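pasting for ref
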Amino acid sequence: MKLLTDLEHLIDYHNFSDTNLQSEIISSSSTQTINKNDVVIREGQFIKWFIIVLEGKIRVWHESENKQITLYKIGKFETCAYSIVAIGKQYQAMVNAIVVSDTATILKIPLSNLKEWKKYHSWQKFMSETLIGKYENLLGCIHKLAFKKVDERLLEFLRKTSERTKSDTINISHNKLANEIGSTREVVSRTLKNFEKKGNVELEFKKIKLKKI
């Protein structure tokens, strides 16, 4: 019953107005609930499902030489760009994805079911908007890594997280913070210590309190 309700909300949210498309989404879908830190996609894995998040949040990142960079996050009624790329062919993921909320519920649609859905205008609009949005996120990541220093990227992340959570206290480890901004734990810890000396932050174990940022 909850699956049907979630699907109805998804259909309304993206305005999937064609009744045939609605029927196909409902008939071909299954759901899976995943716990925090569980892997959704692993680099090198063949993608078999088209995934849409119904509840929760998923982090998508790339890793090289033990350094991670967050590419984007997938929230409610969003999908991963790599799910779109994989439609109609055998595709190995070049990214990793894990659940970052307490739990996440994902809608799983076999890729083979999607080949005919391009005839539906509302579905094509959803796919196009997703690709454009994630492409813009990727450009933002490239810009930050190429043109912004670690302290600037760190300040921006702390400010945005504080605004989003409406709190001056951010609960996060230095390692996770490094993964978010594409740096190393050692560099992030050193930068935070400099911030603390300037009176910008107060540091506790896995906790950062913003003061004058």
